[in-house]
C-alpha cells in the first residue's frame, strides 16, 4: 500500500470559485453581453492570457487582463467594445462576492482543529483584501497571499513554492485547496499536497497527479483532514 501523505501543516486556499461564489459577476457579464455563456468565455480568456503573460515573461495584473478579456469577448461576439467606465463597473463586482454557503462551516472546522490557513490567489493584493473583507472571511486567515510578488500566475510552480518559503513550510507539508483541476495539478507538480473541491461544473485534469483529497464541499474536505 502507498504511504499516506503527512498531515499538512499549512493550508493554502484559492479564492475565486473555490471560496467565493461568482454568480453575481456571472450574471452581470451574461446580461451585459446578452449571452448565457459570456462569463464562462470571459473567465477562460482571463485564465488563458494570464498564462500567456507567464510563459512569455510579461506581467499584467488580473484586473488588467480581465479588462482586456472583456474587449476580446466583445470582439469575438461581434459586439462593440465597452467604454472603460462600464468595464470598470463590471470588474468591480469581483470584489463584491459572497462566500459559497459551505465555506464558513468548513473554515471554522479547520480553524478549530488548529490548521494554519492562508490564501493564494491570482487576484492582485488590493482586490484580494477587498474580496476577503467583503465576504467576512478575514479572521480565518493568517495571511492573504497573492501572486503579485512573484509576477507569475498559478499554476507556475514558483507561485506555490514562494508561498511555502514565505511561510517557512516545506512543500510536502503544505496543501492547496482549489476548485480547479489546473490549480490542484500545479500544486501537486510543485511538490505540495492538494484537495480538489468539486464545485458544480469543475473537473480534475486527468493528465495531472490525482488530488490528495477530493470533496463535494469544504466541510467534507475539512473532515478528511481532521480525521487524517
TrEMBL record:
* Domain of life, per lineage: Bacteria
Concerning Gene3D superfamilies, the annotation shows: HAD superfamily/HAD-like (3.40.50.1000), Putative phosphatase, domain 2 (1.10.150.240)
**InterPro entries, alphabetically?**
2-HAD (IPR006328), HAD-like_sf (IPR036412), HAD-SF_hydro_IA (IPR006439), HAD_sf (IPR023214), PGP-like_dom2 (IPR023198), S-2-haloacid_dehalogenase (IPR051540)
The UniProt entry, under Pfam families, shows: Hydrolase
Residue ranges of the TM segments: none
Q: Which CDD domains match?
A: HAD_L2-DEX (cd02588)
Q: Does the keyword Hydrolase apply?
A: yes
Q: Which UniProt keywords apply?
A: Hydrolase
Q: Which PANTHER family match?
A: HALOACID DEHALOGENASE, TYPE II (AFU_ORTHOLOGUE AFUA_2G07750)-RELATED (PTHR43316:SF3), HYDROLASE, HALOACID DELAHOGENASE-RELATED (PTHR43316)
Protein family: Belongs to the HAD-like hydrolase superfamily. S-2-haloalkanoic acid dehalogenase family.
- Listed name of the protein: Haloacid dehalogenase type II
